[in-house]
Structure prediction request, 346 residues.
Amino acid sequence: MKLMILTIAGSIGLFAVNAYSQNNFYAGKTVTLVATTAPGGTGDLRVKAMLPFLKKHIPGNPTVVIQYMDGGGGRKGANHMYSSVAPDGLTIGAASGAIIGLAVMREKGISYDIDKFIYLGTPESENHYVIYTRKELGLDNSKKLAAKSGIRIGAQTVGHVSYVAGRLFAYFLNFKDPKFIAGYTSREADVALVNGELDARANNATSVLRRNPDWFDKGVMNFHAIMEVPVGDKHPRLGHLPEIGTFAKTETEKKLITLWRAFRGVGSPYILPPGTPKDRVAILEEAMRKTFKDPEFAPYFKKIVADDASPLGPAELRKVIAEIPRDAETIDMLQKFAGPGPLPPR
Prediction:
């Protein structure tokens, strides 16, 4: 009997030590957020809005720092997280949602498996995109827009989210012989648009309203259409614009928009490399849940990002990614929009 009591007591003591050890793992350590974006943009601000809350809610209050790893529409940082990062729970990927779409579409330069990443959640899942042109062009209705030949649409790189969005808008709004010009940073594209080197740009609605509010408020640009992510979620200021889905004529076109919308609905996923110990995954998942429930998080996020948080927790994000359509026909069609070739005939 004494032996049994001692054994039970010893087991309880060991459990308490292990629990204490797990909860104190992060004390005095540094957690690195690998941001797959460049400094200064909306993606960077989303990461910065998360930083103080992760520090607050990860047990042990570790130091949390950002390491920028922009490139390839998120490929560079995602590849790094998958293959080069120690799976010790001290490096978290603050990824662009583009890494999901790039992998599903089997793009070049992908050395990661989206089904093997460990997903912690995303601070936003609403991801509206708009297309706009310089006011000087006088394209203030859909007929004029479709009649104008050779509209120059700027973007970052071939395959970038804004590049694909621009091509989708051009296709569904029946642009006449549009020209797609890649190679800009986001800010360079803004300058080129103002200077008349570009005619149009597709961009995240939050980004354009935050960086260049006069473009909408004072009519510096003509705004033509919106892609709602998720569908039916009306943007508070741009909800009057026609939704891209209303221009779809066939089931194939509807599936194409559904697939792209699903890619954008994953938001900015926070990821861990495969093999991260389960106890540390659990700690970080709980820290993410507490962050999203923190009453100070939503107002702080809006202050920093100039947009409302629309978070998905770990289980919700995993479900969204698991349910993304992956049929070959739709993927092959979307690949044509992500590449450098001409748009498919309509």
Q: What stands out?
A: Residues 129-263 form a domain with the D-Maltodextrin-Binding Protein; domain 2 fold (CATH 3.40.190.10). The CA atoms of residues 132 and 224 lie 6 Å apart.
